[in-house]
Amino acid sequence: MKAVLRIYYIGAYYMSWFWFFSVGLGLNLFSLPLLLLPHRDSRGQWMRAVIRGLFDLWVRWFHASNVVRIHWHGFVEPLPTGCVYIANHPTLLDATFLLARLPDAICIFKPALMRNPVIGPPAIMAGYVAGDPGVDLVRAISEKIALGRSLLVFPEGTRTEPGHPLNPVKPGFALIAARAQAPVQLIVIRATPDLVPRGRPWWRPPVNQPSTVAISLDRRWEYDPERSPTQLAAEVEKHLLQVLRPVSA
């Protein structure tokens, strides 16, 4: 029986990625000609809604197939826009799960991902931002938040190093929040350790299946002009380390 279940979970896992890449390619082909149209920024909210809906279907597929059991905690009331949402980053799938829930959200992509033929054109249409360092990036994103959009940031900058609760928290999100005078909402993610962590390629199925992901709405920091971005980043890191501390510690 265990062997049969293992075969099922491996097949369903690969089917999940097949759907992801197939839908991504279709959305990419649909988005390419839209990039050539004038006033493409006016279609950004529509594209973000499309991406949110597709990621919601992705989450529903995981539930239906039982490949990944996703548990949401605290997501009862509608989430506000004009907020900087931050989260720890244990798995490759974190952004897809969160973008399925966050309202009118943009995120910061690595420049290489913005050039990716599968996700690049839709990301550009949606108004996502390439993560080139500098003041211009902070200004551009802050203006988008001031217009009422949400921002998703992983302050660690990359997936958490295996065996560690958290990578060092970078203050970029705090700089953006300070400039936009926006609140910061923390989301805590806990996942099965071998669910596409850093260093593990997506094509290697988890050994422990079904995998589990718990996503919790945690602490919120309101805008405070007296608190520097460095202080806020330090507070977030300290709080996350406390929250993610192993139960046996």
The largest β sheet comes out as: 7 strands, mixed
Kindly report the spatial arrangement of strands forming the biggest sheet. 1-7-6-2-5-3-4
Ends distance: 36 Å
Number of domains: 1
Mean pLDDT: 91
Radius of gyration: 18 Å
Report the order of strands and helices. Answer: HHEEHEHHEHEHEEH
The fraction of residues assigned to DSSP E strands is 15-25%
Helix-residue proportion: 40-55%
Poorly predicted runs of 5 or more residues: none
Give the total of beta strands.
7
Number of helices, where a helix is a run of at least 4 consecutive DSSP H or I residues: 8
| Sheet/helix structural class | alpha/beta
Outline, from the CA principal axes?
globular
In a nutshell, what does this entry contain?
With 249 residues, this protein is α/β, with parallel strands linked by helices.
Features:
249 residues; alpha/beta; 7-stranded mixed beta sheet; 8 helices; 7 strands; globular
What does this structure look like?
The protein has helices at residues 2-34, 44-65, 94-99, 111-114, 120-125, 135-146, 172-180, 229-243; strands spanning 68-73, 84-87, 105-109, 129-130, 150-153, 184-191, 211-221. The two termini are 36 Å apart. The chain has 249 residues and is of the alpha/beta class. The chain has one domain. It has a 7-stranded mixed sheet, sandwiched between helices. It is 43% helix and 16% strand.
